[in-house]
Every structure is written in C-alpha cells, then in structure tokens.
Amino acid sequence: MPPGTLSALNYYALLGLSNGATVPEIRRAYRQLSKRYHPDTSPLPQEEAREKFQQIKDAYKTLSNDRERHLYDVKLRLEREGMGGNGVSLPPHWKRTPDSAYGRSPGMGRELSERPLSSGELFVLLILGITLIGCLLLAIAIGLTRENVPSPYL
C-alpha cells in the first residue's frame, strides 16, 4: 500500500490488538503503550517518542469511539478487498485520517459533544447550580437587611 493510506499504519497492529478487540482491551493496550512511549518518561529520543505517542493516541481515539471505529473498519475492509487493486483507487476523502475527516487537528482531545454526561457529572452540575443560587440569595438577603451606613472611605 502506498504511504498515506490507512493500512500503511494499521491502528490495531499499532496497539498490538486483533480487529475484534473490545473497548477494555483497547484501553488496556493504550495505557500500557502510552506509559512506555510518553515523551516525558520514554528512553527514546524526544521527537521519536512524541511521534510514537501521538500515533498511539490517535489509534486509541479512533478505536475507542464506536462511530469512528466503524468508519475505520470499513475503510480497512475496502482496501483489503482490493478496492484499489483493480485499477480503481479510493476517493481522496477515504484516505484521510479520522481526525482530518472530522475537521480536527491531530492531538486535539475529544469534543464534549462526543459523549453524554455521566450521572456523577450531572450531580456535580446540580450541586454547583444550587450553590450558586444559594450564594446569590444570601447576598440579596444581606443587602436588603443591612442598614444604609455611609462608607468611611467616601
């Protein structure tokens, strides 16, 4: 395969997994490899470690998201079945990495819209909202019950 196609850097092979790997297996492989290749802790040269870590991060981001993983699997299957082997090449937009296909630059974190809030996060937001409203009511109550005392600084 020419460089730049998805199979030139197979995310499953990069993480040392089979195509049918589960999300916990993907997470476990990512954690192990990210510890090994993190630029701050790796014995490799800084640039090489940074590049390898970025590849591992991109692979994890793609394979841990159901939608992106499905698209990636379809692209791999089309390449493997010879979509480009009989003189027909893949369209240019099929050769893009998932990051560029979704308009993100490599290395950006997940967007907040990609997953719903957990129950714990919703609870924390509720408590913060109640606290904010309570503080505002307390400030208003103090302001209304306080006598108008002229400020000594005016």
Pairing-aware structural class of the strands and helices? Answer: mainly alpha
What is the 3D form? elongated
H/E element sequence:
HHHHHH
**Which parts are unreliable, with pLDDT below 50 for 5 consecutive residues or more?**
1-8
Radius of gyration: 25 Å
The CATH topology assignment of the domain at 9-82 is Helix Hairpins
Mean pLDDT: 78
The residue fraction in helices comes out at: 55-70%
From the coordinates shown, what is the CATH architecture of the domain at 9-82? Orthogonal Bundle
Q: CATH homologous superfamily of the domain at 9-82?
A: DnaJ domain
Which keywords apply here?
Helix Hairpins; disordered N terminus; mainly alpha; 154 residues; 6 helices
Structure description:
The chain is mainly α. Among the domains are: 9-82, DnaJ domain (Helix Hairpins, Orthogonal Bundle), CATH 1.10.287; 118-148. The protein is built from six helices and no strands. It has helices at 11-15, 23-37, 46-64, 66-80, 98-101, 119-145. Helix 2 (23-37) runs antiparallel to helix 3 and helix 3 packs across helix 4. Mean pLDDT is 78; it is low at 1-8. InterPro entries: DjlA_DnaK_co-chaperone, DnaJ_domain, J_dom_sf.
Briefly characterize the structure.
Keywords: Membrane, Transmembrane, Transmembrane helix. The chain has 154 residues and is an all-alpha fold.
